[in-house]
Amino acid sequence: MEIRNQNLTRYIIPLREGGSLPALAEADDGFKYVVKFRGAGHREKALIADFLGSEIARAAGFLVPEQVFLNLDEYFGQAEGDEEIQDLLKWSQGMNLGVHYLQGSMTLDPYVNPVDELLASRIVWLDTFITNVDRTVKNTNMLVWHSETWLIDHGASFYFHHAWSDWEKSALTPFPYIKDHALLHKATRMKEADAMIRQKLTPEKMSEIVDAIPPDWLRWDEASSEEGEERREVYRKFLMKRLNDVDIVKAVEDARAKQI
Hints:
Radius of gyration: 18 Å
Oligomer: single chain
Order of helices and strands: EEEHEHEEHEEHHHHH
C-alpha cells in the first residue's frame, strides 16, 4: 500500500476539543488536514493506533478519510504565539499523521442520524477487533459527510501497547469495553458483519498495513532499529491472533445480552 508523504506548510488553528491538541493545517499539496502530532499525549503509540485502526477500517470497507504522512521541519510554526503549541510543534519534528479534512461534516448522533443494523454491526465488529475504547455516545468519532457515515480517530485502539507486556493474553481478550459502544444497541446482525469483514481482512492485507507503519514511530523510546522491527512483528502477530482466535460475534452478543 502507498501512503502519501507531504510537508506541512501552514498551521491554521488548534482543534482544542481533542485531548492531544490536534490541529487543522495545510500541506504542500494544497489540501487541509487534521494533524495528529507525535509530540502529544501518548506520542507515537497514538499515531500507530490511529493509523492501523483507520487503515484496517478502510480495508474492511468503511469510509475513512485519507491518511498521509506529514513532515514537520524545525522552522514550522515559529510564528505561533501560544507557547504550549510552540512546544508541541518542537517535540513533533519529523513524521506526523495527517487526516484529510472533511469540510462541512457533522458529528454523528447515534440516536438522531440513521445507521442501519448491518452498518452498526460492522462498526461494532471493527471496534471489538481493534479494541477501540473511544466510540461512545459521549464521543462517537463518526461523522456524517455527504449523507454518509465516516469513521475517524482510532488513536485509542490497541491499548495493550501502553503496557507492552503479555500481548498474547491481550490479543485473546473478548474486549469488555464494547459494552459502552455507541452503536451496540443496533448491532443485531453480527454474523453477517463477521462474514463480510473476514472476507476482506486477509492475512496479506493485514501484513501490508502493518508494514506501512513508519519505522521511526516504532522507536518511541529511542529504541534501536532492530527493536522497532520486533515491535512491528508484535503488532502483526497481535492482529492475526485476534483475527483467528477470538470469537468476536460471541463477544458482542454477550455484551448485548447484558445491556438488555
